[in-house]
Amino acid sequence: xxxxxxxxxxxxxxxxxxxxxxxxxxxxxxxxxxxxxxxxxxxxxxxxxxxxxxxxxxxxxxxxxxxxxxxxxxxxxxxxxxxxxxxxxxxxxxxxxxxxxxxxxxxxxxxxxxxxxxxxxxxxxxxxxxxxxxxxxxxxxxxxxxxxxxxxxxxxxxxxxxxxxxxxxxxxxxxxxxxxxxxxxxxxxxxxxxxxxxxxxxxxxxxxxxxxxxxxxxxxxxxxxxxxxxxxxxxxxxxxxxxxxxxxxxxxxxxxxxxxxxxxxxxxxxxxxxxxxxxxxxxxxxxxxxxxxxxxxxxxxxxxxxxxxxxxxxxxxxxxxxxxxxxxxxxxxxxxxxxxxxxxxxxxxxxxxxxxxxxxxxxxxxxxxxxxxxxxxxxxxxxxxxxxxxxxxxxxxxxxxxxxxxxxxxxxxxxxxxxxxxxxxxxxxxxxxxxxxxxxxxxxxxxxxxxxxxxxxxxxxxxxxxxxxxxxxxxxxxxxxxxxxxxxxxxxxxxxxxxxxxxxxxxxxxxxxxxxxxxxxxxxxxxxxxxxxxxxxxxxxxxxxxxxxxxxxxxxxxx
Length: 559
Description:
By secondary structure, this protein is of the alpha/beta class. Helix 10 links the parallel strand 12 and strand 13 (about 285-290).
C-alpha cells in the first residue's frame, strides 16, 4: 500500500508515463509530465527554505498548475493549504496568519488579491512568494523567491522526501462559529485509507474519466484528485463557471465521456430543475456520487429515471472525517417524492454511532447525536487544542485510551432497516451549495459593521439551487440609514460569496427569547410569511422586508 500521497504520482509515472493524468479544456498533462513538473517545483520550494512540516499556501485557481503545486508541496515534505482566490483579502490574510505559511504560490490572475492580502496588518511576516507564471508578469510590488522560469531550469528527477503517512498532507479551512476560520488537518493516511477503499468499492481503474467539480479548497476535491491518480485514471477538471450553466454542464459530461461524477447535490438538483438530462443520456457514465448535503428525492428520481444503467451512491462525512465515513448505494428509483434516502452504513474502517446526551446508544427509531470513529478522523484543528477537545472526544467504546469519536453536530436515527438516517443539525451550522457554514460567523461579521445595533442570521430550506437560503434580520443604530445593499457590500469584504445572506429584514427592535437572546425562531417565522415566500417563488433572491417591530408584535416569550 502506498505510504504517502505523492508516491501515487511516481508510481503512475513509472507504469504509464504517456497516460493522460489531468485535463482542463484544451490543456492536459501526462503522468510523466506531472511527475517531472512536481519534482521541479518541489526543488524550488526547498531552495526557498521550505522544510518538513512547513505550510505552503496555494492562491491558485482550479488548474493543472494548482495540482502540480499540491504534489510538489508534498514532495518537499510540506503541508499545502488551498485557498479560495475569490475570498475577501481580510479572510485570506487571517488564514495565512493562523497557519503561518512559509511560502505562498500565486499566478497572474490572483496578483490583485495577493496585493490586497499584503496590505492587511494582521500578517506580521508575509510568506515568501513563488510565482507560477513568468516573472515579467508580476504586477505586484512584493518580492518573489522564484518564478516559473526559475522552476523550469531545475531538475525533474526524483526528490528525496522524509514525510510519512502520519504527517499532515493538507489543511482545509472551514467556517468557524467565533468568526475565526478553523483549519482541519488531514494526514496522508487519512486520505490513503479512504481512497484505497473507494477504488475497491467502486471499481475505479485506469480506463475511468473522473469529474473534478469541487473547488480545490473543498474536501470533495480530495477524492477527485487522489482517487484519479491512485487508479491511474483521467481527471477532468470542471471549469467553475459551468456550475451555474446547467446546459453546458450536461454538455461537459457528454463531451468528456465521464465515467464518474462526484459533486454536491445542489448542482444535480439545479440540472434537474432545468431539465437538461435526456433519457439514457451520458452513455459513458457508470457512477454518480454525491456528498455534502441532502439530495432532494424528486431530483434523485429525475436522474435515476433518465439514467437507469448508472449506479447512484450517497456519501456522507464532515471534513473532519476525511471525505466520507458512510455510503449508501441506492438500489432502485424511489417511487415517492417524499421517500427518505439514508446515509447508509459505515465505510471500511469507520464507525457511526447514534448516542444520547450520556453517550449511550439510542434505540432504533430514536433521534440522537451522530458521532464518527475510525481511520478517517482528523488529528484535529490546526494549533487549536480547545476547539479540538470540544468535538474530538475520548471514545467510551474504544479499547485504547487514544481511541476517539468525533461529534458531527448532526442528529440522526437508526431505521428499521438498520441504516442511518439524518434528521438535521443540532447547532447553527448549515450546508448551502455544499459549503459548510457557521451562521455564528456571519452574525459576527454583521455585528462588526458600523451602524448595526442587533442582528440575527437564520437559514431557510428552499427548492432553489442554493438548497438553504441565508437570511439576515438586523436593527440599525439610531440615526443610521444602513440599507441592506450597503450592509452586503461591507460583508462582501470579509466573507466569501457563499456566506452572504440573500434575504434581509430591517427591524426597529429585535425580539428576545426567555434567555435574553435574539429570538431566531420568531425571525425565521417572519421570513417564512407569505409575502416573503411569494417573492422567493418569483425568483427575487434579494427580497428585503422592512418591518417595524414592537413588543406587541412579537409572540409569547419562549425559552
